[in-house]
């Protein structure tokens, strides 16, 4: 707080007395002497008894000095006292005391005075921006007469010294050039031009070479006190000139609407400043002295300093508009009222473009931010909606999260839902009605978001979020049947429809046994149509059946039809494609289809082998089987009879091995289909998507469906209303999720299946030291080798029986000519059997399976599977 004149006189009188009275008088006496002098200056100078009081005061001081032999000190003190009491006004006394103090300070520091009196200032001086209390103008160097040392010993008062005996200048000569000055009226006549950044005769202005600033020359006849005061006043003119130049330089060139809005605020502030200066100098009653001018524009100087700092840091740099907006918000909460009030006014204006961005986004789903100032942005290099529209939670401004921390996320989802419903779902009528309703509420009922308080904005965002999410759920699950398509993906890609897959394998077995380059689209289509007509799929709605297609993968996947065939369930025409296929979702399904297809193919071949062997057993080996009882009881058997008994035994043994492999394949298929796929589907799809999971409505193997929607509209819930706005929400049985959440739910579901530990290369068995999937593929390869070997073994048996039947059909002919053929076949059969039993089954399949089962037993999650195997 500034000192009043009474306090100033008191302070400077004490400083003066302390500098003139020797310390031997004691501090208490010095303070008493200062108090007496201060009291006289304030109360005694206008009284009739002035001369008497002065004489008494002088006599009192004289006795104190002379009693201590301090003649020279008394002469100096008396001289200053005589000069002081000559002043008739308080202002004159204050100025004289301040002048004496500065003269003594300057003399003690032996400062040198430069020729020429200029004030130079560049607004880019770091000192300006670092401390608002530091005047923007530097201290002036005054062209004043210098003192010369003299020595006078005759006791003449005119020869007394103000500082010390070594620096001798008469006090009157020393004071005169500093105290005499231009009159206030003469300075005021030109000052208004300087404050407006204009040149004048008294205060000429020139540019500083190589710098962006002004140089103002101060008249040499101006005293030091006026120079300091004038320096502080002229700061406003220099600030105004720099700010005006900055506006002219940046106007129309800033890409940021926030910064552009600030320039409009700054232009208005500069215009108000000019009006204030004009009004001030047009009314002579308001200003009659420089001190009055300073008092009138002191608030303007502080405000211009703030605008200077803001402009330099934000407009003259590449700082982002969002950062600028956030800075103004923080400044508006500043403790200093001058800063907070001005910053709040600036914030109110520059935040308008930011609110306009939000208005476009939540009404139309349009992003009008071209300067990366919003917390939502587009990545035009991406193709999927989830990658194109990006959300940056770190850029949500504090002033928007005061009421609700989640408001930024909801704003993001509102616009994203609108884009999805418009661009992908083509719900143009609903979008248009939504647009009209909220445009009317925001701009007709209110005057834009900026006119609303944060509680009202929060309620508006909540209602828009609920309404868009409710309609999105309706479109995704009722109109586009996402849940039904997920069931179909499970049926076809994850082979949950057993009879259909078996029908494809059976109808296409001969075709799939051909080389992949010989397959045609027409052949695959015929197989698919036959399989649909011979399975329960024929009873499916055409909406789903028509989406099925058969195709082959890239020929690099294999050489045989079995290796490259795949089903395709098309949803390219539906917006749910963006949810299910996100992040290569289709490839995840195809990968699982390929694996399950191998299992089902092997299961089919094993079953075919079982049927083939049953036919051999019942037909080809029937006569051997009939004689086997007799042969077993006979004591002497010939070579042919031994061969026949061995043939029956080996045939049965291969059947037993096949059954073991069928059990293994069947157990693996059941585990993957029920314990893995169905369990994941129930936990991550049904339980996540539906509010009520009533068992009688639950989806199961019979494809019964959960109830999804009612046909009636729900009444608006009271706590979801705001004045003038009532959302229309549809009552349904679905949990409402955003696009991001739906994608996440589906990804977790399919990834939990495809990344299951039995499919992972990183999951190593504790016993075998190999990954689970490596052992599974090894076992599948062994099964395939067994199938091929057993097929060859069956063919040899049929050949053996055929030759035997030929022998039996010969009448009176010799059988010796067929002995060699039977012996060759018999050798092949024994060799083949030994290879199947010892190598393929015992050494390969059984040992590998045992290690695999031990690995499963050592894993808590897979113990149940190990028991089944």
Automatic annotation (TrEMBL):
GO terms for molecular function: gamma-tubulin binding; microtubule minus-end binding. It is found in: Cytoplasm, Cytoskeleton, Microtubule organizing center. It comes from the Eukaryota. Residues 135-159 are annotated as: Disordered. InterPro entries: GCP, GCP_C, GCP_C_sf, GCP_N. Keywords: Cytoplasm, Cytoskeleton, Microtubule. The keyword Cytoplasm applies. This is Spindle pole body component. It comes from Hyphopichia burtonii NRRL Y-1933. The lineage of its organism: Eukaryota, Fungi, Dikarya, Ascomycota, Saccharomycotina.
């Amino acid at each position: 707080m500034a000192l009043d004149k009474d306090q100033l006189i008191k302070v400077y009188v004490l400083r003066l007395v302390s500098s003139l009275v020797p310390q031997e008088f004691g501090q208490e006496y010095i303070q008493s002497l200062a108090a007496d002098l201060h009291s006289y200056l304030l109360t005694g100078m206008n009284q009739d008894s002035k001369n008497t009081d002065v004489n008494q005061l002088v006599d009192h001081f004289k006795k104190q000095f002379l009693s201590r032999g301090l003649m020279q000190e008394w002469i100096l003190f008396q001289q200053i006292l005589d000069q002081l009491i000559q002043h008739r006004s308080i202002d004159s006394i204050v100025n004289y005391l301040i002048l004496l103090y500065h003269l003594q300070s300057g003399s003690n520091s032996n400062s040198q005075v430069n020729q020429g009196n200029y004030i130079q200032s560049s607004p880019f001086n770091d000192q300006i921006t670092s401390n608002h209390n530091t005047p923007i103008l530097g201290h002036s160097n005054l062209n004043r007469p210098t003192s010369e040392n003299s020595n006078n010993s005759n006791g003449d008062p005119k020869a007394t010294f103000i500082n010390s005996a070594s620096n001798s200048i008469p006090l009157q000569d020393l004071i005169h050039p500093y105290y005499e000055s231009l009159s206030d009226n003469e300075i005021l006549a030109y000052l208004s031009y300087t404050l407006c950044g204009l040149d004048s005769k008294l205060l000429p202005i020139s540019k500083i070479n190589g710098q962006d600033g002004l140089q103002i020359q101060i008249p040499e006849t101006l005293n030091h006190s006026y120079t300091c005061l004038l320096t502080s006043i002229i700061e406003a003119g220099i600030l105004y000139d720099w700010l005006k130049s900055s506006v002219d330089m940046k106007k129309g060139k800033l890409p940021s609407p926030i910064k552009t809005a600030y320039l409009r605020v700054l232009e208005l502030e500069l215009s108000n400043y000019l009006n204030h200066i004009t009004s001030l100098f047009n009314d002579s009653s308001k200003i009659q002295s420089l001190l009055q001018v300073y008092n009138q524009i002191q608030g303007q100087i502080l405000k211009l300093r703030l605008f200077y700092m803001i402009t330099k840091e934000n407009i003259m740099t590449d700082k982002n508009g969002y950062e600028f907006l956030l800075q103004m918000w923080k400044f508006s909460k500043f403790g200093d009222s001058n800063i907070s009030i001005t910053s709040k006014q600036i914030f109110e204006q520059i935040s308008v473009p930011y609110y306009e961005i939000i208005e476009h986004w939540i009404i139309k789903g349009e992003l009008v931010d071209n300067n990366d100032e919003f917390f939502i942005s587009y990545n035009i290099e991406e193709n999927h909606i989830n990658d194109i529209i990006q959300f940056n939670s770190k850029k949500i401004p504090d002033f928007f999260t005061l009421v609700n921390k989640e408001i930024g996320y909801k704003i993001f989802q509102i616009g994203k839902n609108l884009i999805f419903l418009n661009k992908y779902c083509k719900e143009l009528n609903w979008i248009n009605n939504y647009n009209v309703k909220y445009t009317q509420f925001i701009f007709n009922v209110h005057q834009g978001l900026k006119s609303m308080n944060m509680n009202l904005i929060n309620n508006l965002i909540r209602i828009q979020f609920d309404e868009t999410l409710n309609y999105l759920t309706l479109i995704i699950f009722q109109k586009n049947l996402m849940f039904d398509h997920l069931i179909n993906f499970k049926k076809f890609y994850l082979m949950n429809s057993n009879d259909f897959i078996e029908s494809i394998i059976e109808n296409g077995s001969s075709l799939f046994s051909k080389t992949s380059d010989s397959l045609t689209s027409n052949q695959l289509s015929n197989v698919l149509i036959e399989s649909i007509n011979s399975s329960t799929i024929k009873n499916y709605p055409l909406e789903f059946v028509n989406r099925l297609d058969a195709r082959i993968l890239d020929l690099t996947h294999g050489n045989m039809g079995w290796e490259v065939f795949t089903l395709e369930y098309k949803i390219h025409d539906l917006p749910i494609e963006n949810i299910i296929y996100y992040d290569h979702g289709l490839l995840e399904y195809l990968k699982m289809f390929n694996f399950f297809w191998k299992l089902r193919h092997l299961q089919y071949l094993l079953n075919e082998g079982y049927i083939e062997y049953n036919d051999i057993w019942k037909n080809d080996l029937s006569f051997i089987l009939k004689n086997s009882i007799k042969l077993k009881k006979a004591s002497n058997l010939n070579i042919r009879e031994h061969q026949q008994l061995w043939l029956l035994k080996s045939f049965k043994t291969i059947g037993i091995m096949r059954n073991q492999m069928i059990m293994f394949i069947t157990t693996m298929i059941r585990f993957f289909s029920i314990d893995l796929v169905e369990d994941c589907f129930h936990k991550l799809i049904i339980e996540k998507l539906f509010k009520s999971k009533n068992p009688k409505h639950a989806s199961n193997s019979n494809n019964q469906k959960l109830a999804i929607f009612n046909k009636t509209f729900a009444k608006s819930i009271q706590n979801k209303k705001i004045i003038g706005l009532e959302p229309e929400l549809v009552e349904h049985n679905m949990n409402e999720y955003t696009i991001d959440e739906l994608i996440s739910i589906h990804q977790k579901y399919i990834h939990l299946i495809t990344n299951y530990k039995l499919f992972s290369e990183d999951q190593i068995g504790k016993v075998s030291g190999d990954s689970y999937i490596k052992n599974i593929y090894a076992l599948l390869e062994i099964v395939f080798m067994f199938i091929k070997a057993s097929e060859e073994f069956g063919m040899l048996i049929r050949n053996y029986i055929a030759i035997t039947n030929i022998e039996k059909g010969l009448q009176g002919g010799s059988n010796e000519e067929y002995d060699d053929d039977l012996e060759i076949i018999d050798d092949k059969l024994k060799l083949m059997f030994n290879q199947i039993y010892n190598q393929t089954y015992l050494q390969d399949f059984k040992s590998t399976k045992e290690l695999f089962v031990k690995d499963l037993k050592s894993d808590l999650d897979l113990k149940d599977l190990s028991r089944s195997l």
